[in-house]
Structures are given as structure tokens and as C-alpha cells.
Amino acid sequence: MANREYHQYCGLSRAAEVVGQRWMLLILRDLTVGPRRYSDLVAGLPGIPTNLLSTRLKELEGDGLVVREVRRGADRSVVYGLTARGLALMPALDALSLWGAGELREPREGEIVTEASLVSGLRVAAGAGSRPGRDAVFVVHVGDATAHVLVRDGEVTVVPGDHGSPDLRITAGPRFRDFLAGAVSPQEAVAEGIVGLEGDASLLDDIAAAFVVPYADS
Amino acid sequence: MANREYHQYCGLSRAAEVVGQRWMLLILRDLTVGPRRYSDLVAGLPGIPTNLLSTRLKELEGDGLVVREVRRGADRSVVYGLTARGLALMPALDALSLWGAGELREPREGEIVTEASLVSGLRVAAGAGSRPGRDAVFVVHVGDATAHVLVRDGEVTVVPGDHGSPDLRITAGPRFRDFLAGAVSPQEAVAEGIVGLEGDASLLDDIAAAFVVPYADS
DNA sequence: CGGGATCCCCCGAGATACTG
DNA sequence: CAGTATCTCGGGGGATCCCG
Question: Most buried of B8, B107, B146, B188, CB within 10 angstroms?
Fold first, then answer.
């Protein structure tokens, strides 16, 4: 790669110069869930070489997708956040997520679910499902990752972490993906222990309708 | 890249394993405009090493995105085409194109417009513009690339090549991009020679309304 | 001539250690 | 915590060659 260019005057080649590099898509995805510290990113990107993350963040900063902000205060931590231009990539990232999820079945050996992937996965699922009816607050645990889901006036907001007092707390493993595909009904999911519930169990039907990630037809 | 995996159980990492490799996005984009021979792909991807194209096509075939078909007949040519799974990537590719086009201004030194980029660019522009009113047939020339645009019942179809007898033939250079952004009005485009017209010049207003590729706000 | 395969070189990616 | 420094290794770039 003498340089990362493609010598074509077109939008896709410009996009490819950014997202067509190793780790870029996942770095950007992690930043779509909110500003992140360097160590947050390292933790959320298992296996990334630290020097490569450093390089990528500089490239993103140079391209105007990311801003590096040194927090002044007790902790002088460094936080990376997306600019408007970076945020504008979200529809494309979500389209790619939806496509890639189509072939997601059994996890491969050693694969984990990160917090950013859970949050963005639920965001994508909300976009592909029907508009939710009842307002509610959910907390979803998959592996070590936790997401906080707010449903209000038919709008869905997903943020990382556990911010307490949900109407329903869901604890699941990788087979939660089969549930989101509709391959496992809410009743089956409970009966087979795919999901553990704490709270108003009837809300699980709402989740099944409003959060959908279909399998690729094949 | 020990392997191309990311050790995350999520759709985006699966997509990144395919799309996050050099040249992959452009290869897939070229195939979205229709089945292509090896030499067509080489011609449409300036600078791609032939061995790398060969490798990528095998990967895509192995991933089920591409089928390699040996045409039986007078010419035993080999044709590569997208499977349904490959075609399902088109919305994501178009979203990336639209995003990348946001910062397209002056062409860089040595950049060209390929046929696939013109066709897919117009396809993306049709998706972002308003629904066209009058039925019409256009032929668009930009550089050496030619696209054939059919507007019928508000639906737009764009195919490569010149299939004759258009209602309007448009010949333009890279500044056609400014026209698609709305930065240059149809009148200005004609007055400044950005577009050359042959046929029903009043149809240029229809094009301006129906084909839009906005600039990134910055 | 279309459709590749083979070669070498070099840069980018991975891993680890270390530092402000 | 937030990177930088250094090393190794494999994949990409580029040219050339090959085969039906």
C-alpha cells in the first residue's frame, strides 16, 4: 500500500480509504456509542495492537471524523469522540452490521460480545423491527456486556451500561441472536433458558416485535 | 493479519472481514452494476495487482458473495456475478458511497471516473433525490465512462454503456459532481459549459431534481 | 488475447516492551 | 493511563511470465 488511495473520482473510493483499513470499522462503531478513552477502546477491541489503534485514531483525527479531547479536571484523561462527519457514517455502519449479522449463527471459538457491539447491535435491531408500543426501560446483559434500553413514545435509545431500575432485566448468552432473528419465540426462549428474566416478563413479547435482526435468506 | 478475523461475535465484525480488505469495496461495487469478466474488473480498478484481484475473487466465491460462471458458447469467457447474498450488500455500499461523496470536490491528480463508479454514482444520486416526474431516457458521458439512465413511472434504472436514442445526451466532466450537489444550477451548468447537451435540454431540470448527491455540511 | 500464476520487495500489521 | 519504540512476519504492490 504505497498509499491508501484508489485513483478513482468517486464517493465509494473515498469511503474505502477510511473504512477499508483494518480495525477502522470497529473503531468507528465503538465511537458511535459515545466518546471513549484510549483504554476503553483497547478493551473493546480484543487483539488490536496498541500502536495500530494509535495510528488509526490519528488518521481519523486528520480526516476530521474524530476529535481528541483532553479532559481538564481531576483526571486529565484523553477522550476520543466523533465529529458530525464521523457520526454521518452511522447509517452505513448500521447497514453493514445488519448485513453481516445475517450470517451470524454460532459464535466462533474465542469470540466475545463487547459492550459497543451489544449497544450497536440493539440499535440496529430497533431499526429493523416494528415501532414499539409500550414505553419501558430494559437492561440487557450478554456475556460481560450490558446495555440500557429506553423505549419512549415509540423511540428507542440504547446506551452502554446499567443505569438501574429497569422494567425488565434480561440476561442472555449468544443464543439471544436466535431470539432476535425470530427463530426462537419468547416462550421458547424462556422455556429453554436462553434468556433469564427479572421484572415484567410480558415485556419480552414487545422486545421480540420491536428488535429484529433477520437471518440472511439462504 | 494472521487471519482476517476480529474475535467479536457481532455483525459488523463479520462484515469487516469481507469489506475491510483492500480493494474489496470497489470490486463489489463494480459487480453490483452487473456481471463482469476478469479483464473488465482489471480495467475498472486502476492499479489493482492482478494476483490480488484473483485472490479476492476466490475469497468472495468462498464466502458465497460471488459466483464464477464459465460461459459456454463461442467464447468460453469467465464471468463473475453477485449472488443474492452479495447483492444484499448494495444498500450498505450505497450508504458508504453517499457518505464518501460528501467530501468529493476537485478530483485528485490522476483520478479517473470508471464506468462502474458513474453507474453506481447515478444510482446513489437517484436514491437521494426526489421521485422523478416525466419518463425519459438519458445517456450520460463523464470522461470515458458512459451510463444509460431509464426513468419510467418514477423508477430509475441505471445501466452501463450507451444503448442509443436517448431523449437527452449529457456530456460532462468532473464538475458534474457540483451539479449533482445543487451547487451549480442547470442554467449555470449550461452557461459555463459544465454540461454539453444533445436533445431535449428541458430535461436537465428533471435531472437536477431527481439526482442529488449533497455535500457534507462542513 | 483473456485469465490468471509466480516472482521479489517492501510496507503495514501483530506482538511485546517500555516510558512520560 | 496513554501512548511510543522496536522487532518480526505476512500480505499487498508491481512486473513479468504462462497457458489454453
Answer: B8
Prediction pTM value: 0.95
Place of cell 437492561: A139
pLDDT tens, residue order, chain A (218 aa) = 457 889 999 999 999 999 999 999 999 999 999 999 999 999 999 999 999 999 999 999 999 999 999 887 667 788 999 999 999 999 999 999 999 999 999 999 999 999 999 999 999 999 999 999 899 999 999 999 999 999 999 999 999 999 989 999 999 999 999 999 999 999 999 999 999 999 999 999 999 999 999 999 86
Strand B78-82 relative to strand B66-70: parallel, antiparallel, unpaired? antiparallel
Q: Are B15 and A25 in contact (CB under 8 A)?
A: yes
First to last CA, chain A: 36
| Chain position carrying cell 485513483 | A7
Residues in B 122-151 with any Cβ partner in A closer than 8 A: 124
The pair phi, psi for residue B195, each rounded to 5°, is: -125, 140
A19–B19 C-beta distance less than 8 A: yes
Check if residue A187 sits with its Cβ under 7 angstroms from strand D. no
Closest CA to A9 of B110, B10, B48, B194: B110
Q: Distance between CA A30 and CA A82 in Å, rounded? A: 10
Separation between Cα atoms, residue B26 and residue B100, nearest integer Å:
13
Size of chain A, expressed as the number of residues it contains:
218
Query: 10 Å Cβ neighbour count for B73?
Result: 6
The DSSP symbol for A8 reads B
A20/B contact by beta carbon, under 8 A: yes
CA atoms within 13 A on the CB side of B204: 24
Closest to A79 in 3D by CA, of A121, A31, A117, A111: A31
Q: Residue B101 carries which side chain, given as an amino acid letter?
A: A
Q: Do residues B10 and A104 make contact, with C-beta atoms less than 8 angstroms apart? A: yes
Please state, in angstroms and rounded to a whole number, the distance separating the CA atoms of residues A21 and A60.
11
